[in-house]
Amino acid sequence: MLSALEKYDPQIYELLTQEKARQSGSLRLIPSENYVSKAVMQASGSCLTNKYAEGYPNKRYYEGQQVTDLIESIAILRAKKVFKAEHANVQSYSGSVANLAAYAALLEPGDTIMGLSLPNGGHLTHGWKVSQTSKIYNSVQYGVDPATGVFDYNKIEELAKKIKPKMIISGATAYPREIDFEKFGEIAKSVGAYHLSDTAHISGLIVAGIHQSPVPFADIVSTTTHKTLRGPRGGMLLCKADHAAKVDKAVFPGLQGGPHMHTITGIAVAMAEADTPEFVEYAKQIVKNSKRLAEKLLEYGFDLVSGGTDNHLLLIDLRNKGVTGKKYAKALDRAKIVSNYNTIPGDPAPPFNPSGLRMGTPSVTTRGMKEEQMDCIADYMKRIVENIDNETVIEDVGKEVLLLCSQFPVPDHFIA
Ligand code: DSN
Description:
45% of the residues lie in helices and 13% in strands. The protein has helices at 2-8, 10-24, 38-44, 66-83, 95-106, 133-136, 153-163, 181-190, 203-207, 244-255, 261-274, 277-299, 325-334, 362-366, 371-386, 391-407, and strands at 27-28, 55-56, 59-60, 87-89, 112-116, 138-142, 167-170, 194-198, 220-224, 235-239, 303-304, 313-317, 337-338, 340-342, 356-360. By secondary structure, the chain is α/β, with parallel strands linked by helices. The model has no long low-confidence stretch (mean pLDDT 97). The site of D-serine (DSN) has 4 residues, from loops. D-serine binds at residues 32, 95, 123, 173.
């Protein structure tokens, strides 16, 4: 396929070649990124990109669905199996649309939603002020306990009792600790609210059985398919059978037109991959790596929000290091260590230049890196934070990163 691209559009081919080299020649620590397998890549970049399939299996608005119906049905069955869910919808273009669909399924405009605020680790679509979700719905937000960086479930319950939301959203994009979805479910039930759980970051850990699953405790569970779940870029919704028709209707025709069948094909393959003992081992190693990285960073005097991690990500509060998240992220990037600057709970600094750095281990774990390599990464991070304005040190670390990457090439079946 690339040779056709090389011939037709050498400039784009060259840029893709550069990006592939960047992905293999850097330590990719953005916790929402990963490497998909060649099988997933092949399925996603397939002839299904040519097909329109408005509707659902056996109920489409276009003809020529002999194969698409089978593929989507397989993706649904596999998703239901790995998540132990009564119903799965695999058509959402992304996690954001999946969340919008969950709202549309169960709420009316103007209803009150209660989600985690963005600076506390929530997602834009959990009702943050610049998101349409706060304009369509009446959004009241909860946070983490500023002293501990973790949820105070009593406070969340108190707020829920006070505002009586129609829906409570659990889940986060920058929360390093295990979430008690059962507790969120109880709180929602106690105030007569629906419970939506956004598991985008941790769904891979959930299917591997190493993070509590919200499926038994939530009305609807949303996820992206490309983070710890290691599938193509997409979204998915899981729910109880009672909500199935509403969820499906909210995705199509409520919010979307034709589903991206090539992505759904990739999701089907990813769900098969997730249903293996190798995937469980992979997910366990993600957490071992993340815990080890946390341990070493603490030894080096880094301040971690919540004091550590239970999952795939870490959030560093950089205030004691005298450097902003942005400056540090950019220096790390020059040394080929790729992370993202992030707000920390109660951040006094603005979101475009916040006090924190978010990082995670899904991608480096796919490369086969283990605890020993986490020690190296922590050491690189220490050297850079202590020499933030010293380009020689940054360059030296960059060379060591390249050497480490060369010892852990992206496995052949993962590089496409
Ligand atoms: N952009 C995703 C993340 O990095 O967490 C959330 O949508």
